[in-house]
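Can't paste images in this forum, so I'm doing it all in text. The chain is below; anyone willing to post the predicted C-alpha cells underneath?
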Amino acid sequence: AALTVRFLTRRFIGEYGDMEFIYSHNLTVDGREILLHIWDVPGSQQAEDGSSEEKRIQWADSFVLVYSICDRASFNILPLKIQFIKAAKEGQSQEKVPIVIVGNKRDLHHQRVVSSEEGRLLALSLDCGFYEVSAAE
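Text version of the structure:
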C-alpha cells in the first residue's frame, strides 16, 4: 500500500491497515493518456481462498508483486504466486503476461535479509522485470 500511495500521490505514509483498495489514476505515457486501475491487495489477504485470487488475476492485465527486502517470507512466496498467475493468464492466451517483481524498503539496508542479487536472479528465472525501491525515499 505504501508503494501504491507513493506512486499515486508522491507522499509516503508509513502505516497502513490490512485493507484492499482499487485506485484509478490517469497517466500520460509517450504522449498517450492511460487510465490505470490498481487493485492493491495486502500480503495477508493474498493467502485467501483460490477463487478470490483467481478473480483478481482475471481482472488484471499486468502484475506488480512487491516483497520486503527485510522479510524473507514475503520473497519466498513469489515463485508460487507467479506460477499461479502465469497458469491462469497464459493458459488462456499465447501472450506473455507482464509481471514485475519489486523489492521494497531499500532504505532499510541494515535490516536486509534478501539480497538484490537474489531478487534479480528470481526475476530472471521467472521471466519477470525487477526493481528495488524505497517507498519512504
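The radius of gyration is 15 Å. Residues 1-132 form a domain with the Rossmann fold fold (CATH 3.40.50.300).
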